Amino acid sequence: MEKEIIGRGTWLDKVAFEVLQREESIGRKVDVLRTESGLGASGIPHVGSLGDCARAYGIKLALEAQGRKSEYIAFSDDKDGLRKVPAGLPDDLGRYLGFPVSSIPDPFGCHGSYGEHMSSLLLDSLDKCGIEYKFYSGTKAYKEGLFNKQIEILLANAKRVGEIIREELGQEKYTEVLPYFPVCSNCGRIYTTKAYDFVPKESKILYRCEGLEIKGRWIEGCKYNGELDYRTGDGKLSWKVEFAARWTGLGINFEAYGKDIADSVRVNDRICKDILEYEQPFHVQYEMFLDKGGKKISKSTGNVFTPQVWLTYGSPQSLLLLMFKRIVGTRVLSPLDIPQYMAEMDELEDIYFGRKTVGDRMELAKLKGLYEYCWLFKTPSQLSVHVPYNLLVYLAKVAPRGFEIQYVTEKLREYGYVKNTVPEDLEKRIEYARSWAEDFVEIQVTAVKVSEQERKAITRLIEVLRVERDERAIQNAIYNSAKSVELEARDFFKLLYRILLGSSEGPKLGSYIVAMGNENVIDMLQRAISQ
Q1: Regarding beta strands 257-258 and 235-237, do their DSSP bridges make them parallel or antiparallel, or are they unpaired?
Q2: How confident is the model at residue 2 (pLDDT cuts 50, 70, 90)?
Q3: How far, CA to CA in Å, does 41 sit from each of 55, 86, 113, 120?
Q4: Which of 417, 399, 416 lies closest to 408 in space, CA to CA?
Q5: From its phi and psi, is residue 304 left (phi > 0), alpha (psi between -120 and 50) or beta?
Q6: Any idea what DSSP says for residue 280?
Q7: Which of 103, 51, 405, 345 is nearest to 234 (CA)?
C-alpha cells in the first residue's frame, strides 16, 4: 500500500490511503466504498459547488487505484426550503420563500421545478468534465422511504439528539422541538413548521405552522395545526441530523466539507455514531474560493463564477486541475486565472510524456499522478500540440472579424505549430481563445520575477518597439537589448516568452511581435516590469 502511494503521491492518494486505514481500524468490511457530496439546489451552482463533487470523485478514483471498488454519489438537496432569492433571479420568487425548492416552478420554464433546474446545471458541468456519478434527489429519497429507518430512530431518540446539539453548539432549540420539518399541508411551506410531538405507533408527527425568520425577514406561518406520517416523505430532517441519516442510509465512507458547515458536520458525526450506531465517514475540510475582492463566491449573493463560465474559456482538465492541485488554503479566483491553468496543464503534460524533466523522484511521481487525475485516468496516448494560450488569444484579437478560426490556423501553420490538418484538441483550444478574445480586453501577463538587469533590457527593447516595425530589425533588437546589459540572449528570449506567452518557448519573436502589434506587446512588457 505504501508503495502505491509513493507511485503517485498526490493528496488524493494520501486521503484514500487514510480512508482505507480507518475502515480497517473500525472493522467495517464492505465490497464498495462510497464517496458523497451534496448538490445545493437553492441557487446557481458555482465553481466551489463543482469542487465538492470533483474532490469526492477524485477520492473515488484514488480508492480504485489502490485496488478497491468505489462509487461516487451526488445527492441533490432539493427538499431544502428557499431561504433567499438569489441575486439576478426574478423577484417574484420571493413569494416562494420557505417552500421546498422541488415544489417551486422553474422560472426559466425548462425543468419540472426550480430545484431540478439548479441541480441540472451542476450535473451538466459534471458530465462535461467526465465525472461519473450515481444521482439521488432528496425529494425522491424521502418519498421512496430511503431514510425511514433513520428518521424513526432519530425521532424516537429526539431528547438525546437535542442534548447532543446543545452540547456541541450551545443551541437549545432541539431540546424543545423535533429535528424534522414537515411540509405544511395547508400552505406548502417547510421551514415555517415546528414539529413538537412524535407518535411512534402511528409513525405520526404533530406540528404547527408558526413561521420563521429567514435572513432577517420574518416568514409568517399559516397557524395550521397538522399531523404527518413521515413515511409519506412530505418533510425532511433538519441539517443537524440529516447528514448522519444520509451517511447511514447510503453507506458513505468519505465526504469532504467546507469550513462554513464544520459545526453541522461535527454534530452529525456524533449523532451518526451515538444515535444511529454507524461510524461516520472519513472527512477532510477545505477552504472557500474567494473572488478578487476577497468575497466568498456564493450562489445566494449573485457573486457567482460558474463551471460553465470556466468551460467557455478553458478545458475540463484545467478546471479539474483547479480542484485537484491542492485542497488546503483559501484561493482567490476569477476567469482571468484560466489561461494560467491552461498553461499549467501543458507543463504537466510535458512532464508526463518526458518532454520536461523533473529531478526529484517523488515530485515527478506527484506531478505525473496529478496529470492522470486531471484526465480522470483516461490520459491521451501521446503528447498534444502545445500552442501558448496567450498566442492564440492575440491571434484571435487581430484576426479579421468572422474569420478568426481560419486566420489563427493559417498563422499556426506559418509559425510551424501544425503542418496541414489542425488536431481536434487544438481546434477546441482555438475556440476557447476566441471566446476569451471576444469577452476580455486584456491578455493575461504571466507573473514573472524580473531582475533589475532584465528590467533594463526590457526597457531598452520597449524603446525600439515604439519606432521599429520590421520583424528582422526587432529580432536583432532583442539580441542587442540583452547584450547592452550583459545578459545572455538565450535567457532574455526565455524571459520574453514567459511574459508574452506563459511558455518558455514559441514562434520567432520578431515576426510574432509584428503580428500581435507593437503597442499590444509594449503594454504587456510594461505591465510585467511594473508588477
Answers
A1: unpaired
A2: very low
A3: 19, 11, 10, 9
A4: 399
A5: beta
A6: P
A7: 103
Using alpha carbons, select from 28, 247, 253, 50 the residue that is nearest to residue 136: 247
Supply the DSSP string of 86-113, one letter for each residue. -TTS-GGGGGGTTSBGGGS--TTSSSSS
Residues 6+ apart with CB under 8 A from 406: 399
Question: For residue 35, what are the β-bridge partners?
Answer: 72, 254
CB 266 within 8 A of CB 152: no
Q: How many CB atoms are located within 10 Å of the residue 407 CB?
A: 15
* Residue partners of 98: CB distance under 8 A and separation at least 6: 81, 82, 83, 189, 190, 191, 192, 212, 214, 219
Between CA 424 and CA 323 the distance in angstroms is 25
Of 511, 507, 525, nearest in space to 386 by CA: 507
| Minimum mean pLDDT range among 34-48, 195-209, 401-415, 448-462 | 401-415
For residues 465 and 517, give the distance between their C-alpha atoms in angstroms, rounded to a whole number. Answer: 10
Residue 177: CA atoms inside 13 Å, Cβ hemisphere, count? 20
* Whole-angstrom distance, CA of residue 188 vs CA of residue 185: 6
- Contact call for residues 70 and 95 (beta carbons, < 8 A): no
Residue burial 334-361, b: 16+ Cβ < 10 Å; e: rest:
ebebbbbbbbbbbbbbbbbbeeeeeeee
pTM: 0.86
DSSP H/E element including 412: helix 404-415
Residue 396 banded pLDDT, cuts 50, 70, 90: confident
473 touches 504 (CB < 8 A): no
In the numeric block, the cell 486505514 is attached to: 21
How many CB atoms sit inside 10 A of residue 437's CB?
21
User: What stretches of 235-363 adopt beta strand conformation (E)?
Assistant: 235-237, 257-258, 285-286, 289-290, 331-332
How far is 145 from 376, CA to CA, in rounded Å? 34
Q: Is 408 within 8 Å of 399 (Cβ atoms)?
A: yes
Using alpha carbons only, how large is the chain's radius of gyration in Å?
A: 28
Q: Tell me, rounded to whole angstroms, the distance of Cα 366 from its chain centroid.
A: 21
CB 17: neighbour CB atoms within 10 A?
17
The C-alpha atoms of residue 445 and residue 529 are separated, in whole angstroms, by 10
A 10 A CB-CB count for 379 gives 16
pLDDT digits (tens, 9 = 90+) for 70-128: 999 999 999 999 988 888 888 899 899 999 999 999 999 999 999 999 999 999 999 99
- Phi then psi for residue 127, to 5 deg, are -60, -45
Q: Are 408 and 396 in contact (CB under 8 A)?
A: yes
Grid cell in block for residue 484: 547592452
Residue type, 189: R
C-alpha to C-alpha distance for 128 and 196, rounded to whole angstroms: 45
Q: What angle do CA 47, 48, 50 make, to 5 degrees?
A: 65
